Each structure stands twice: as structure tokens, then as C-alpha cells.
Amino acid sequence: MIGNDLDSGYDCNSIAFMKFSLSLALFTAFLVAACSEEPQPPPPRHRAASYGPTQPEQYPPPQQPFNPNGPVQPTGTPPVETAAAPPPPPTAAPTKIAKGDYPYGIPVPGKPHLVESPYSPGKYIDVEGFPPGTEVKDPYTDKIFLVP
Questions:
Q1: Which domain holds residue 68?
Q2: Model pTM greater than 0.90?
């Protein structure tokens, strides 16, 4: 017989063992890679806001009385500040003032939704959500002015 297994010079048992051990090593490597967890991404870094000095706000804001004759507030926007004191009792029937007779609020530079009241200088009022020309009440003097 020519070329039988005994004449080849290789040990068939050792070749089979090497194939098995190589297969076992690859299987183990894939198993370890599949079971390992991916590293967690680093948490996002937040920068602290650097705003200029502001007026201290009263927290919580004072409860405002319900005024059925007051301006309609759009939903989802903060209400315009009104005076905390109850309105004085009416002495005579108020006369209706034409819309053109009210002064406009003064826009605050760098603050798009704040205006300065024409009746109380230095006092800011938030008019976010009110379109230009809307009548709003100055919470400090209870007088009406227009949104610029």
C-alpha cells in the first residue's frame, strides 16, 4: 500500500486535538466578547449659566385674586403680575378710555419679554405671550398700558 496513515509521519490524534483546541479557543473568545458590557459613555458636562445680577424674586409668588373683568391670559404662559391688594370699591361708573389713550411699555434691552412700566419706572413686567398692542395692567399701579 502506498500512502497509508502510518507512513505520513503525522500523528492523527495530535492534529485532531489541535483542531479541537483551536475551535474551543475561538468559541471562548467569541463568548467572552459577547458577554462583556460596552463601556458607559461619560456623563454630559453642564456649564453653569453665567447671568448678570438680577433682582431677587419672591418665592413662591404671591397668590393673585381672581378678576373676572381682567385681561384673558393665554394658556401655557405665566400670568402677568397684578397687585396683591384688593381693588378699591368703585365710587362711580368708570369711563371707557380709548385704546389709543394708553401709553406703551418701554422694552428692556437684552430681555425680549420684559418691559418697563410707563407708570412705575425701574419696575419690569413680563409680557411674554401677549401680542404687540395688547392692553396689560401694571401690577404696581393698577393702570393699563400697551405691549410694545
A1: 63-85+96-148
A2: no
